[in-house]
Specification:
The protein has helices spanning about 50-65, 110-115, 125, 135-145, 150-155, 165-175, 180-185, 200-205, 240-245, 305-315, 325-330, 370-395; strands at about 5-10, 15-20, 25-35, 45, 75-80, 85-90, 100, 160-165, 175-180, 190, 195, 215, 220-225, 230-240, 255-260, 265-270, 280-285, 295-300, 340, 360, 400-405. It is of the alpha+beta class and about 400 residues long.
Length: about 400
């Protein structure tokens, strides 16, 4: 009799495998980081094969810790960094290029070109999204335009595209699928039909044969092979939507904010898409089996926890991320200095991919403590802007905000 359910949590900086018992308690968890690749300013890549290798390692790691077998697991679900784009060979499973990460801004030129007709919001009515470097569609186009032979092979049906959920599920089961939440982050899915939009595919010159089948967030997609042999793979939600669902935001007006690499505030808006006039995204919240889809408004902030990592890795200001709190507490205030962490442009509510990071208000008085404090405050300032936009768009005053993510320990 299976004792556990399992989750693969494939994030921007690491992959985790978690076993839960019937009461929802964590029985075992294993986690591994993967490499962040920065080939040029504004470019961010991952090695998709490394991510799959890490996924297999953490599955084995958690099973060993719990002394468990695949037969002890009733089902496994996948959650993932959402817009990160992989294109791979159908026959061999080899990616034709590194995964292009959601933070990457190389598709700026593609987005600007598309915006010449109808502006940045030309696809918003159908997709709920502005034309921005954040989403998968322009990244697929970049790979097809820039990787030798990729376009011809895609047109012949030899290449597959997926966000990381699709990549992991394909490697687990051989099924080429995604769910509505991940599909809604590609700039290619129609919010109303919940299917790929042929007009947009034509506009971006993306062959439909590359794209996975869009399914609900909760159904059996296939049976796992390998380390999870025989386990039903039966859940798929983009990481922020998984947090919305996991934080039990099941009623319209309930919201959550995840303080992770970036910050993502989502509010359940019920069974209808709510168009945004304040720079938010209209997105899918979740779809359970045959039930109707639930929609959400999202305020996406590109850089929050990643700024703390930058203080650690690029400036050597702290040794580990958790040290930032101690350092920030050495001062009373920010000393008049402010951080605008637009390393990947500015997301909601501005959508300016040409913006770059700035530190303002520096004087001789400012020290390391002020820099750490201003870095943390930038997360709060950005979150406040999104919250104000959300209340304005929805006409709902938020009664409660549920929070999660690594930064909430601070």
């Amino acid at each position: 009799m299976p004792k556990y359910v399992a989750a693969i949590d494939q994030g921007t900086t690491s992959t985790r495998f978690i076993l839960f018992d019937h009461a929802g308690n964590v029985v075992a968890v294993d986690q591994k980081e993967h490499q962040q690749i920065y080939p040029k300013p504004g470019w961010v890549e991952h090695d998709a094969l490394e991510i799959w290798e890490r996924t297999q390692r953490v599955i084995r790691g958690a099973l060993d810790k719990a002394n468990a077998e695949p037969s002890d697991i009733a089902a496994v679900g996948v959650t993932n960094q959402r817009e990160t784009t992989v294109v791979w060979e159908k026959e061999t499973g080899r990616p034709v290029y590194n995964a292009i990460v959601w933070q990457d801004t190389r598709t700026d030129g593609i987005c600007n070109e598309l915006a010449k007709v109808g502006g940045q919001d030309r696809l918003r009515a159908k997709t709920g999204l502005p034309l921005a470097t954040y989403f998968s569609g322009p990244k697929i186009k970049w790979i097809l335009d820039n990787v030798s032979g990729a376009r011809e092979r895609a047109e012949k049906g030899e290449l597959f595209f997926g966000n990381i959920d699709t990549w992991v599920i394909w490697n687990l089961t051989g099924a080429h699928v995604t769910d509505v939440t991940n599909a809604s982050r590609t700039l290619l899915m129609n919010l109303y039909t919940l299917d790929w939009d042929d007009e947009i595919l034509k506009l971006l010159d993306i062959p439909r044969a590359m794209l996975p089948e869009i399914r609900s967030s909760s159904e059996v997609y296939g049976t796992a092979k390998g380390a999870l042999g025989g386990v039903a793979v039966s859940g798929d939600l983009g990481d922020q939507q998984a947090a919305l669902f996991g934080q039990t935001c099941y009623s319209a007006g309930e919201a959550k904010n995840t303080y992770g690499t970036g910050c993502f505030m989502l509010m359940n808006t019920g069974g209808k898409p709510v168009p945004s006039k304040s720079g938010l995204l209209t997105t899918l919240g979740y779809k359970i089996g045959n039930q109707k889809a639930v929609y959400a408004l999202e305020g996406s902030i590109a850089i929050t926890g990643a700024l703390v990592q930058w203080l650690r890795d690029n400036l050597g200001l702290i040794e580990k991320s958790s040290d930032v709190e101690t350092l920030a507490r050495t001062v009373e205030d920010n000393g008049g200095m402010y951080f605008v962490p637009a390393f990947s442009g500015l997301f909601a509510p501005y959508w300016r991919s040409d913006a770059r990071g700035a530190i303002v208000g520096m004087t001789r008085y400012v020290n390391r403590g002020h820099i750490a404090r201003a870095a943390l405050e930038s997360t709060a300032f950005q979150t406040r802007e999104v919250l104000d936009a959300m209340e304005k768009d929805s006409g709902v005053t938020l009664t409660s905000l549920k929070v999660d993510g690594g930064m909430v320990f601070n």
